[in-house]
Design a protein that fits this description.
Helix content: 10-25%
Number of strands: 8
Structural class: alpha+beta
Strand order of the largest sheet: 1-2-3-4
Number of helices: 3
Length: 269
């Protein structure tokens, strides 16, 4: 009956001869039956390898596929084999920690406040001058507007001024003075006289020039009566109140009416 593959083979402990020139061993070949712990520790690579065949043919289909080397990463640590005389288990050295550097992010950091630059002294002076000019212009416009509203209330539109005076015309007296009306009519100063207050003998006097300039038609006109020629008679002085200055024009008292001045008249205002 043939031997099966599962039955263990028995070692021949006695002398065996296989031929005429066979070598005879004087004693049994015994192998140390003591198995140490070290013999049981096999490398990972050896323990995982399948049993090799007795043929010389190399099977290339089962060859391991080469792996590309990984740059920058250390390989797996291989445990150190212990010898038979070593009683304590060696601890495999630990691999050093791997530090992976991440690319720096563009993180904006708050910048320190820039140092304040010194301001030249001409800058505040210039700003102050400009502010003064603006205030001057605005103030002038406001003042002109306010004066125009005041003249509207006092003189009306067209500008009209009325006054009573005793000038010796038409038998006027303090009880019945002459009445005068001064009007700025289309930039022309016109004065109307009612002697002793009577409308029948009314006379008009026109200033021989126009009132020029902006707002000339809104310029008020007033009257004043006093002797400026030193002849003992009350003369009529017309005041034209312009925005920049006042202009005057004199009508000389001729006894019954007023007349424009001539070269012979010496006027003392």
């Amino acid at each position: 009956m043939g031997r099966t593959a599962d039955q263990p083979q028995k070692r021949n402990t006695g002398p065996r001869k296989t031929g005429p020139n066979a070598v005879t061993f004087s004693g049994p070949l015994e192998r140390d039956s003591q198995v140490t712990e070290d013999d049981m520790l096999l490398d990972d690579g050896i323990a995982s390898d399948p049993p090799r065949s007795n043929t010389t043919a190399i099977r290339r289909t089962n060859l391991p596929i080469p792996r590309p080397p990984t740059a920058g990463l250390p390989g797996s640590p291989v445990p150190v084999r212990r010898t038979g005389g070593q009683s304590k288990q060696l601890i495999a050295p630990q691999a050093p920690p791997i530090h992976i550097q991440h690319p720096a992010r563009n993180i904006t950091k708050p910048q320190a406040a820039a140092a304040k630059k010194k301001v030249h002294w001409l800058l505040p002076v210039g700003i102050g001058m400009i502010a003064m000019l603006v205030l001057w212009e605005v103030g002038s416009l406001v003042l002109a507007w306010g004066l125009a509203r005041y003249d509207d209330l006092r003189y009306g539109n067209p500008r009209t001024y009325q006054v009573d005076a005793v000038v010796g015309h038409g038998g006027d007296s303090p009880l019945h003075p002459s009445h005068f009306i001064a009007v700025n009519l289309n930039r022309q100063a016109i004065v109307v006289e009612f002697p002793a207050g009577a409308q029948s003998g009314a006379s008009s006097y026109v200033v021989p020039y126009y009132i020029l300039g902006p707002g000339g038609d809104l310029t008020p006109i007033t009257l004043e009566f006093r002797d400026v020629t030193a002849d003992g008679k009350v003369d009529m002085i017309i005041h034209i109140h312009l925005q920049s200055q006042d202009q005057t024009f004199v009508f000389v008292n001729a006894g019954t009416k007023f007349r424009p001045p001539n070269a012979k008249d010496i006027i003392h205002l």
